Amino acid sequence: MTEENPFDDIPGTTLFDAHKSREGYHLNMFCMSMGDAASREEFKQDERAYLARYPMTEEQRDCVLRRDALRLIEIGGNIYFLAKLFYVDGRSVRSVCAAMSGMTDKEYEQMMLDGGRSPEGNRSKSEWAQSA
Question: I need a surface site. Which of 27, 51, 77, 96 has the fewest CB within 10 A?
């Protein structure tokens, strides 16, 4: 039986805790390997074959192949490790965050320069249910 996580009540937030760390261990070890130039080249040659070296779940492998950053975070990916994967494609963490937010890089950059996303509407899920 899994214990309820109090942070699950915060919309758009995935807490990287000990559970997520265990869940994403092999995914994150794969990402760490992308810090090595030879490994990056080998990965680019045959992504599926390279991923087969790591005992990840099929969903984790699929999300890597699709570069589904948001889902990778939800299934145990640590953003600092995932950044190494993004860099394989020449993408910055900022550009990935922009895509996850449904913004262009420029829009995301401007939002951050303006002080970040408005807290308006960023209530807990239980608060949303009470106000409906």
Answer: 51
Domains and CATH numbers, the chain: 15-90 (1.10.700.10)
Mind listing the pLDDT tens digit for each residue in 13-58?
A: 788 888 989 999 999 999 999 999 999 999 999 999 999 999 999 9
Q: How far apart are CA 33 and CA 119, in angstroms?
A: 37
| Closest CA relative to residue 28, chosen from 91, 73, 93 | 73
Cβ atoms of 28 and 81 within 8 Å: the answer is: yes
Position of tokens 């390279």?
A: 50
Using CA atoms, how far apart are residues 17 and 76, in angstroms rounded to an integer?
9
**Residue 98: both structure tokens together:** 């922009």
Q: Residue 16 to residues 30, 37, 82: CA-CA distances in angstroms?
A: 17, 27, 13
The number of beta carbons lying within 10 Å of the beta carbon of residue 46 is 10
Give me the pLDDT at residue 84, please.
95
- Coil, strand or helix: which one is 74? helix
Q: Is 38 exposed, middle or buried (0-12, 13-18, 19+ CB in 10 A)?
A: exposed
